[in-house]
Amino acid sequence: MRILFFLLIIFLLPLNAHAKLIKSFSDEVVRQTLQTVYNQCRSDTSGKVADYIPALAKGDPKHFGIVICTVDGKMYKIGDTDVTFAIESISKIFSLALALEDAGRETILKNVGVYHTGLPFNSIIASDVREVILQNPLVNVGAITTTSYINGTDSNDKWRRELDKFNLFAGRKLTVMEDVFRSEAETNQHNRALAWQFSSFGYLKGDPDDATLRYTRACSVGITCKDLAVMGATLANQGCNPVTGKQVVKKEFVRDILSVMTIAGLYDSTGPFFFRTGLPAKSGVGGGIVAVVPGRFAIATFSPPLDKFGNSARGVKAMTKLSENLELHVLNP
Ligand code: DON
């Protein structure tokens, strides 16, 4: 009898550990938490819609949406989840996925780096460092350099491959918001200067203007909060899109992308954001933020008013409350 009892314990222990690992919440708990957090954040009118790219100034400050997409492809939505907005800097994580596959981890480490710069996303000071590259693929100069390592027969082919990758992440065909692209392309002298500077150091591959233009096009791709949640859930699901079932990026690179998001996803406010939420995330000046709970789900928020760091004010608040209420900090499993 005693032996039977011990055998039962030995058999049940791993099952219990597994159940803890995949701990999930009932539909009801997730829905209620979303509703509560949405209500708590909606009335927050802090922040200012980006206007340094003229087309972005048209963003409606009242828009606010949250979507959670699980690794099973299940979605929980609230608010303005079907409004199209410019992906902006969030594109950097998906371009990085393709550049890692095309050029390899070592090339990105050597020519871009994975340093937390501690400076604004478009800092020219950060790129003026020759000996040690204190960059990462999520600041502008790092993202433009990363883009320069995407393969293709010519510029159009490189762009086609990049947009195809974005489409695979979203599980549908995305399009460039032409008004945003024109507006950004007319006002991107600063980014072009960064690209030329990095090119002069020998890190950027090929024509700096071409890389900058493809980067600008990538930032102008239109997405909804639902798209963003699916794109994030693909990273949560080891690179496999949970809605289409397609492997979108090689598993081995998912941890690289999530690592970079952890150190620099919200620029110089990444520290406080990670401290509170414990989640790898990425923001864009179009008002989107995506956060990934590895192996479980992704959260996407959309709300155009930005805080002083360039991150959606309601988005940061909502992510923080969701992480607290659902106990999502990855260092507190
Ligand atoms: O290059 C730029 O300035 C924009 N296309 C993207 C910046 C951005 O989204 C920074 N984000 N938080």
Characterise this structure.
The radius of gyration is 20 Å and the shape is globular. The protein has a single domain (25-326), classed as 3-Layer(aba) Sandwich (Beta-lactamase). By secondary structure, it is α+β, with helices and mostly antiparallel strands. Helices cover 49% and strands 10% of the residues. The two termini are 36 Å apart. The chain binds 6-diazenyl-5-OXO-L-norleucine (DON). 6-diazenyl-5-OXO-L-norleucine is lined by residues 88-89, 121-122, 140, 184, 191, 219, 283-285, 310.
Report a brief summary of the structure.
The chain has 333 residues and is an alpha+beta fold.
Short descriptors:
5-stranded antiparallel sheet; Beta-lactamase; 333 residues; alpha+beta; binds 6-diazenyl-5-OXO-L-norleucine; globular; 10% strand
Radius of gyration from the CA trace? 20 Å
Total count of strands:
8
Overall CATH class: Alpha Beta
Which superfamily, in CATH terms, is the homologous superfamily? DD-peptidase/beta-lactamase superfamily
> Which overall shape is indicated by the principal axes computed on the Cα atoms?
globular
Q: Find the structural class using helix and strand composition.
A: alpha+beta
Please tell me the CATH architecture by its name. Answer: 3-Layer(aba) Sandwich
What is the CATH fold-level name? Beta-lactamase
Mean pLDDT: 91
- Number of spatially distinct domains: 1
Between the first and last Cα atoms, what is the distance in angstroms?
36 Å
Determine the strand fraction and express it as a percent band: 5-15%
Level of helix content?
A: 40-55%
Instruction: Spell the H/E element sequence.
Output: HHEEEHHHHEHHHEHHHEEEH
Q: Largest sheet, if any?
A: 5 strands, antiparallel
- Ligand identities: 6-diazenyl-5-OXO-L-norleucine
Strand order of the largest sheet: 2-1-8-7-6
